[in-house]
Write a structure and sequence with these properties.
The complex is a heterodimer of chains A (about 110) and B (about 110).
Chain A lengths: L2 E3 L4 E5 L4 E3 L2 E3 L5 E7 L5 E7 L5 E3 L5 E5 L4 E6 L8 E8 L4 E3 L3 E6 L1
Chain B lengths: L4 E3 L2 E4 L5 E6 L6 E8 L3 E9 L2 E4 L8 E7 L2 E6 L8 E8 L8 E2 L3 E5 L1
Parallel strand pairs in B: 2-11
Antiparallel strand pairs in B: 1-3, 3-8, 4-5, 4-9, 5-6, 7-8, 9-10, 9-11
The chains are: A mainly beta (about 110), B mainly beta (about 110).
Chain lengths: ~110, ~110
């Protein structure tokens, strides 16, 4: 079975500072990896995905993530955050049939 | 594309009443998922369908919950009778069978059972 761990439940960061949201997964098969963002009172929106190829994946809103197979990690990064990035972020893996989500990281950008 | 459409957006009902949540997946998507989100338990998978057939319903809390997908463009999640602990946001999501296809979420139904 697959599992996803997001170690940081809350991450406060000052505006224009860099941020990294951590995601580790465990799987006995090859998986696809995703990051989603959830703004208040909305559904989850896809930020980026890793399917294969280059381990550095760029997504919307200036976010990027790096797949590290040896460390089974898929950390999300942004070099300079904005107030509008305040939201809940979910890491997910897919084994081609089901999707497995982490418990989420609440990012709060402080003015 | 209109995306995944859920209705209603908000539902307030009294304990013991029947509640029906509705979902229209993205046209052409073969898989449909129902999730429940609460502060305490986070995002939980309730059930998912592939080609209108329920594949895994192990996440359905109890017999009060039932889900159907009569055709490729419509699904319902029913709670009968509802209880206050069912209060949550219920999300529907769909994806295609194409390898690596992500999940697309609706905006959810916020259910409050008093």
């Amino acid at each position: 079975a697959q599992s996803v761990t997001q170690l940081d439940s809350q991450v406060p960061v000052f505006e224009e500072a860099p941020v990294e949201l951590r995601c580790n997964y465990s799987s006995s098969v090859s998986v696809y990896l995703f990051w989603y963002v959830q703004y208040p009172n909305q559904g989850l929106q896809l930020l980026l995905k890793y399917l294969s190829g280059s381990t550095l994946v760029k997504g919307i809103n200036g976010f990027e993530a790096e797949f590290n197979k040896s460390q089974t990690s898929f950390h999300l990064r942004k070099p300079s955050v904005h107030i509008s990035d305040t939201a809940e972020y979910f890491c997910a893996v897919s084994d081609r049939s089901q999707f497995y989500f982490g418990t989420g990281t609440s990012l709060t950008v402080i003015p | 594309d209109a995306g995944v459409i859920q209705s209603p957006r908000h539902e307030v009902t009294e304990m013991g009443q029947e509640v029906t949540l509705r979902c229209k997946p993205i046209s052409g998507h073969n898989s449909l998922f129902w999730y429940r989100q609460t502060m305490m338990r986070g995002l939980e998978l309730l059930i998912y369908f592939n080609n209108n057939v329920p594949i895994d319903d192990s996440g359905m809390p109890e017999d009060r919950f039932s889900a159907k997908m009569p055709n490729a463009s419509f699904s319902t999640l029913k709670i009968q009778p509802s209880e206050p602990r069912d209060s949550a946001v219920y999300f529907c999501a769909s994806s295609s069978d194409r390898s690596g296809s992500p999940l697309h979420f609706g905006n959810g139904t916020r259910l409050t059972v008093t």
